[in-house]
Recover the amino acids of this structure.
């Protein structure tokens, strides 16, 4: 009889949903930082993940009156009045969303933040942040460090449609030319280590139709607010809401940050 194998000991696939907060401009930009969040889930838990998010949306409807199909967009929730909900209610919805994600021990969240202050002219915020996130995704796949991971795993990236062609070009280039700096103790040279674990190009989906990308939006927003909180977030003492996610953060992404945030 052939022995059955679980996903924990055979090669398999992970999905990484990604969204951002802030903009990538340097000159005259309204944002001081750029935040990028990737939520990773194994293919075998994808349906469970969606079911949890659907159940969450039904709970948010019954408790707060948020329409099940209404898009959760964190900055809109804080700065405007979607669905005619009071501001404290909208903040409660965002907090409840973070708390629900923190319960899901089968997801992993990787985060990158760019502090745009004092960056040299010509610094490419977009490529620095996205390239770093992609490299962390590749590295974690290679080492089998996602929940239930194995060293032969592969991944697929799903983003909001706004990033589009630039991301496709970036991934294709990294699959051919991807210089990785050596240890600075050894003259600081670099090696070309192309990424090999990505399946296909990044796939763009409209965030209004995709609950997981909306979850990334909320996480990225509070990642940004942890570094540069606005007046309302400070007044409500919500600048550390991001820390509520610690149980599901990819702490291996950075050894220099207690929450695993890659700081650029």
């Amino acid at each position: 009889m052939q022995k059955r194998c679980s996903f924990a000991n055979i090669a398999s696939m992970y999905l990484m949903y990604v969204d951002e907060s802030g903009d990538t401009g340097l000159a005259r930009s309204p944002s001081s930082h750029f935040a990028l969040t990737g939520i990773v889930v194994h293919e075998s838990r994808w349906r469970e993940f969606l079911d949890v998010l659907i159940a969450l949306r039904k709970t948010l409807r019954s408790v707060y009156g948020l329409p099940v199909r209404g898009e959760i967009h964190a900055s809109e929730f804080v700065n405007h009045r979607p669905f005619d909900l009071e501001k404290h209610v909208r903040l409660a919805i965002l907090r409840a969303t973070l708390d629900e994600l923190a319960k899901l021990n089968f997801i992993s969240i990787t985060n990158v933040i760019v502090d745009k202050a004092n960056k040299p002219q010509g610094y490419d915020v977009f490529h620095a942040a996205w390239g770093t996130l992609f490299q962390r995704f590749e590295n974690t796949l290679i080492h089998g460090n996602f929940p239930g991971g194995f060293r032969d795993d592969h991944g697929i990236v799903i983003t909001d449609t706004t990033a589009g062609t630039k991301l496709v070009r970036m991934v294709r280039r990294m699959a051919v030319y991807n210089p990785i700096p050596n240890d600075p103790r050894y003259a600081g040279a670099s090696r070309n280590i192309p990424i090999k674990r990505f399946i296909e190009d990044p796939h763009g989906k409209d965030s209004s139709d995709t609950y997981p990308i909306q979850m990334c939006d909320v996480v990225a927003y509070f990642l940004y607010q942890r570094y540069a909180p606005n007046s309302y977030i400070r007044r409500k003492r919500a600048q550390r809401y991001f820390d509520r996610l610690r149980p599901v953060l990819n702490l291996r992404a950075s050894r220099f940050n207690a929450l695993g945030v890659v700081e650029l």
User: Anything to note?
Assistant: The chain has seven helices and eight strands. The helical segments are 46-64, 74-79, 87-102, 125-142, 165-174, 211-227, 231-235. Residues 112 and 133 are 7 Å apart (CA to CA).
